[in-house]
Amino acid sequence: KAVSMLCHLQLHTTPEKFYIEACDDGTNDVLAIDRVSTEMTLSGKKDIPPAAVTRPICGIMGTIRLVAGVYLVVITKKKKVGILFGHNVWKAIDFDIISYKKTMLHLTDDQMQDNKTFLSMINNVLTTDGFYFATDYDLTHTLQRLANTSPDFQDMSLLERVSGCGSAWSGKGREPGQSEIVTRVQMKFIVMKSCCINGKTFDWTLISRRSCFRAGVRYYVRGIDSEGHAANFVETEQIIQYNGWKASFVQTRGSMPFFWSQRPNLKYKPKPQISKSTNHMDGFQRHFDSQNILYGKQVVLNLVNQKGSEKPLEEAFAKLAASLGNGMVKYVAFDFHKECSRMRWDRLQILVDSVSEMQDEYGYFLVDSDGKVLLQQDGTFRSNCMDCLDRTNVIQSLLARRSLQSQLQRLGVLHVGQRIEEQAEFEKIYKNAWADNANACAKQYAGTGALKTDFTRTGKRTQWGLVMDGWNSLIRYYKNNFSDGFRQDSIDLFLGNYAVEEEEGSTPLRVQKDWKSPIAQSISFNVPLPSSGDTWTETLAYVLFWGTASACTATVILFNGHDFVDAPKLVQKEKMD
Q1: CB 36: neighbour CB atoms within 10 A?
Q2: How far is it, in rounded angstroms, from Cα 234 to Cα 252?
Q3: Global pTM?
Q4: What pLDDT is recorded for position 159?
Q5: Residue 72 in contact with residue 98, Cβ under 8 Å?
Q6: CA dist list (Å): 17 to 36, 59, 72, 372
Q7: DSSP 176
Q8: What pLDDT is recorded for position 2?
Q9: What number is the average pLDDT over the span 253-263?
Q10: Within 13 A of 499's CA, how many CA atoms are on the CB side?
Q11: How far apart are CA 313 and CA 575, in angstroms?
Q12: Are 200 and 240 contacting, i.e. CB atoms less than 8 angstroms apart?
């Protein structure tokens, strides 16, 4: 019981207090929250006033302070994803943000507007698909980490366990004594399938855990921070259960771990910039020191282009890896686009074959039906491309299939000589799940579904897949330039990277626009406007004038592209870099 959270909750509301009642068998706990002082105390069911308005809730995300005061964030609807080792896994579907204050009359018009904007930011994060939780099982850690933990760790509540882990996106407002009340929620992707090969049924699970450190959106969060946390860092674990046996294979992805940025500027592909004033090795070493502690040996698979704008990044990564002098970190560069150009996707096998010996050496985690650990995974593959989305997911799915082949043979599910690729029904499940994983990770970071999922789903590249990639790329372009500043602010606010002061007089939301915007407008609108005439010379002059005006306007806008995109307002750029 010490490590579980409460499954069934009811929220009782009065003008003075919130009462959160635990409805599980054998519990009498009630968390009382004073709506004026915000004080939280544990009491019993007898303290709930009969006149309170009651509603069932599925969990508590935590509390957050906005301009109008403190808000309680609760889960109001959940969906069962599956059962993992006998424990229900849920997906949070709907949420409610409830104000402690009974009125907003104490706010000015500007404060009301700012508070409304902050609320929309919180809703923006909550409506992002991918919040999962379990009330009586630790989803934040891999099977191997859980097996190697101390007795003290096992006695911790699920929420307390996550204090040093980077994968929990809830519980920011927790007070002492609330460990079993607050629901620990993660942003991730989970798929759970019951599969059958050769008449033998096994459970196959794929879990991707998104880190809350250096969290953000595609172009505004790249590289690492001073603590060595990488942008878009995701830990992906593939789990097999068969006849009481458990097997697990873990991989990671994350932005290239040095100080670089790629700010949107209205160009289709902004040029990446490597910081010239920062000691890259400090953050680089911190990153891999933590990776070695968590995962053991590391094989870096750098999939970026080795020419063009991506070439300096690959060269910088290779140089830092060579200078690190860490025998537990091996660097492998593979120019994905060059090798697979002209639809030659079979050449991905070159990379898989080149690292096969290291994959066999690192192995996977295996526990028999008696709970005895038979094998440990001694190292992981850390893959990256520019976004750590499309190219990365393709490679991870191939490496995971190779590990799965070995696991299923060891467990006796596959016969000697059989290949996973030959099992049509399972292969379809496998490919679709990895494609869905790509889409989930991409929507959370880039704002659209992933590219190249036609290969992941079918095993080959198609013309329709190229068309869909083009469509998704256009949507990414629009979102990255004109809506990602708001999305980045939403994440920073949700995770506490920016703290709102109650009744704050002035917030960064009301930043004055740059001087360049009026100038660009004046080019178009504040000049004498010729009109088209009846003669061809007048019409030509009309066309030339407006053509020149449009070209000048476009030139000013593109030259000052940074000032025309939707940029974050809450966290300073220097901190983000």
Answers
A1: 12
A2: 6
A3: 0.89
A4: 63
A5: yes
A6: 8, 18, 12, 49
A7: T
A8: 33
A9: 97
A10: 3
A11: 21
A12: no
